[in-house]
Amino acid sequence: MSRTALCAALLGLLAGCGRDGPTEPAGPANQGDERVAAAELLPESDGLFSRTGDIRVFAGRELFDYINGYGELHLSYNFQVAATADYKLLPGGADAFADVYDMGGPDDAWGIFSIVAPEDDERVEVGAEGENRVRAACSSMSIQFAKGRYYVKAEAFEVGGGIREGLLALAGAIADAIEGASAVPDIVGYLPPEGLVEGSVKVWRTDLALRQFMPLSGEDPLRLPRGALGAAGRYGGRAHWAFVIEYPSEAEAEAALTAYTEAVGGDGASPARRSGSFVAGVWRASTDEDAQRILDSISDRLPRRN
User: Fold this and answer.
1) pTM of the predicted model as reported, rounded to 2 decimal places
2) What is residue 182's DSSP assignment?
3) 3-177 has which fold?
């Protein structure tokens, strides 16, 4: 399977994922502290994997030289640098690769992970015991996680014996190299846990990321400015979402509430309300009563205004 086909099958987000083979370096890894830091997280070898070839590093919009199709999605967060290397998974020698994305901060790293990690992937723990342990999304051919300011993924190009073990070892080695603990963004805590579908939570900053899972009508109906951060989770069918967004100001939150209300046309199953600089809402609940119950639960969890 080509890398383009593999990306499309695994992510299913945007067409044209262009990782069809080793690419030329975008520049030496010693150009800037961020390049060096990301590259140093890619291990050389272990009993279950061995790095082949050079580490390649891409900064800023150089990312399009590596992942052409969905680079814009990464840039919609706070992407800084990507480092990538090819590997052999042992003992079978299956080809694989590992990518480390410096997303500028923990919220953005967890955010891009939440968007691209398939909801149905198994959730597993990788890394050493203690604070280095991290929860990852794992399939038969891939594993990905967020820790600190980094989003990490490793993928193989075939299914076979020993591949899962090699990917787990490779992901664990990278997780152990990243300092600090893995943490879910604080804004996720405003979503009520009762009835929340495991693996469904998304964190986003822009309309581009929002539309990957919640395709509202109109242009930027939640009026997401620079500095906004949102979280959403699924509570019922595929179209039943609850969300909360923190805006930089109360005025921007009020404008967003007005725009969203107009976009859903006053639908009782898609209500929203503002609390200070937060906007909470539900999209396409099964009933109006269900929507209000979830919205009330979110509102009860939001910070109280003085």
Assistant:
1) 0.85
2) -
3) Protein Transport Mog1p; Chain A (3.40.1000)
